[in-house]
Amino acid sequence: MHIIDTINNAPNTLLSLEILPPLKGKKITDLFSHLDKLVEFNPSWINVTYHRSETMFRKNESGNFEKVEIRKRPGTVGICAAIKNYYKIEAVPHLICGGFSKRETEDALIDLHFLGIDNVLVLRGDPPKNESQFEANKNGHNYAIQLVNQIQALNKGIYLDTDIINGSNTNFCMGIAGYPEKHIESPNLDEDVYFTKQKVEAGASYIMTQMFFDNAKYINYVEKCRQIGINVPIIPGLKPLTNKNQLHTLPKIFNIEIPYALSHELHKSKTDKEFETIGTEWLIQQSKELKKLGVPVLHYYTLGKPEVIKNVIKNIF
Question: Per-residue confidence at 105, pLDDT binned at 50, 70, 90?
Fold first, then answer.
């Protein structure tokens, strides 16, 4: 079932989750043990992140170092199929521009289509860790809207190989990312919203926001979107704060602010456990306020913290 239909048919705020694929070499049962703690709350769908290859240097037999490409978290497509079959819950894979050619993307979409997975979250993706700017792969996409256009073409039976006539239509429902505090590369929020509108007009059915810790930022973002004619559902993405390093790393990496009221309390914590307790309570109150506002979905980035998310959810739903 398309995510947009699930949202439109829901009388109340829904719950959705996001997970990371396990590191290469780990078992999928490790992932299931993570989800087993959360599926009792009947999430409407589960997002699975997609990861590009990373460049690393390894010593070869001659003793010299050579550059190699390694994908540390493969398996997104297979994990989505496993979730759908094991839990009978819709799975939504992320699709990213970075690290993939258009043909690789098309092949991944065909795999998803054959598996009956017809929802995707379309993202440009971040630059590699050792690079400051995003650069597309050769024959890849530079922007998320180009990926939206490719998927929309495939939905119409238009493939990259022009000799394919009357190609089978796919049926993907697309979500896109939104940034209540603007994308880190955007000069201002208004321009960021303008480009978001272009992706909606190209075929995206809903917006999933980046994490934020101040609900006023989300409310302002929704208002700006509505003012320029973006009328699709805007889903708040929520993340727990669980260790002290996040106070400094998250604002830097994601271009977000942590409200003074929260940071002031967090600075009082002496251990990560105390920090986690404060962060969890903030997320609970944040979620209650958003639910009271009637947001379509509360989407939680679980990121290896199922017990924390479980504690939040049981206070909300």
Answer: very high
Pick the range with the lowest mean pLDDT from 2-11, 28-37, 42-51, 130-139. 130-139
User: What dihedral do alpha carbons 287, 293, 296, 298 form, nearest 10°?
Assistant: 0
* Domain 3-316: assigned CATH number: 3.20.20.220
Q: Which among 69, 58, 72 is positioned nearest to 22, based on CA atoms?
A: 72
Give the residue-averaged pLDDT of 83-105.
94
> Where does the pLDDT of residue 246 fall: very low under 50, low under 70, confident under 90, or very high at 90 and above?
very high
End-to-end CA distance of the chain: 22
What would the two tokens of residue 257 be? 């602010």
| Alpha carbons 202 and 233: distance in angstroms, whole number | 16
**CA geometry: angle at 236 spanning 215 and 49, to 5°?**
140
Calculate the dihedral angle through the C-alpha atoms of 291, 294, 295, 298, rounding to the nearest 10 degrees. Answer: 30
Angstrom distance (rounded) from CA 317 to CA 176: 25
Tell me the C-alpha distance between 284 and 23, whole Å. 29
Average the pLDDT over 185-203 and give the result.
97
Q: Hey, how many other C-beta atoms are within 10 angstroms of the C-beta on 149?
A: 16
Domains of the chain, by residue range, sit at 3-316
What's residue 99's pLDDT? Answer: 82
What is the pLDDT, as a whole number, of residue 71? 67
Q: Are 70 and 53 in contact (CB under 8 A)?
A: yes
